[in-house]
Amino acid sequence: AQSVSQHNHHVILSEAASLELGCNYSYGGTVNLFWYVQYPGQHLQLLLKYFSGDPLVKGIKGFEAEFIKSKFSFNLRKPSVQWSDTAEYFCAVSNFNKFYFGSGTKLNVKP
Amino acid sequence: DAGVIQSPRHEVTEMGQEVTLRCKLISGHNSLFWYRQTMMRGLELLIYFNNNVPIDDSGMPEDRFSAKMPNASFSTLKIQPSEPRDSAVYFCASSPRLAGAVYTGELFFGEGSRLTVL
């Protein structure tokens, strides 16, 4: 079965620090890759997605992610975080009809 | 466009009672997913439907859980009888799928139903 690993469970940063959240998946075939964000008390919202093409994907709010096929990775980055980025971030992988979510990374940005 | 609509937003019930959670898909979407989120286990896929047909229910924890999709725009998740360990936030998500094509769409989540079983 497919699995998605997010290595950082809880990250604490100060404002303006750079962010990188790791995501690795286990499936070797064609996959679609997503990052979702869940702000406190809210539902999951799409941050960015990769289907094909340029492996560097830009999303909303200054986030980007890079797909490295050889490493089965899809890491999320942001050069300078803000307090409003405090949320939980989920990596997800889909193939055909099934979505697999990682366990999530809680990001706490201190003002 | 209205998003995925879930009801109730909050439900507090006593152990042994029946619980029914409801979900209305985004118009035009034909795939529906039910997820459960807890602190201990994170986000778990319970079941998903495509064109009203259940495709994979391997995530449904036990026979106390059942899900239906009586029409193309509506689904219910029922727990009978409920137990305290069922306490969680239940999310419904929908997605479009092109006919005859490999599924590639993103999921659109509802606001969730927070269930507390005492």
Nutshell version of this structure?
By secondary structure, chain A is an all-beta fold.
Explained architecture:
The complex is a heterodimer of chains A (111) and B (118). Chain A is an all-beta fold and 111 residues long. In chain A, 0% of the residues lie in helices and 53% in strands. In chain A, strands 2, 5, 6, 10, 11 and 12 form a six-stranded mixed sheet that branches. A four-stranded antiparallel sheet of chain A has the order 3-9-8-7, with no helix packed on it. Chain A has a two-stranded antiparallel sheet with strand order 1-4. The termini of chain A are far apart. Chain B is mainly beta and 118 residues long. Chain B is globular and about 40 Å long. The chains are: A mainly beta (111), B mainly beta (118). The A-B interface holds A 32, 34, 36, 42-46, 49, 51, 90, 92, 94, 96-104 and B 31, 33, 35, 42-43, 45, 48, 50, 55-56, 91, 93, 97, 102-104, 106-107, 109-112.
Radius of gyration of chain B, in Å, reads: 14 Å
Assembly state here?
heterodimer
Q: Please report the total strand number of chain B as a whole number.
A: 11
What is the 3D form of chain B?
globular
Poorly predicted runs of chain B are none
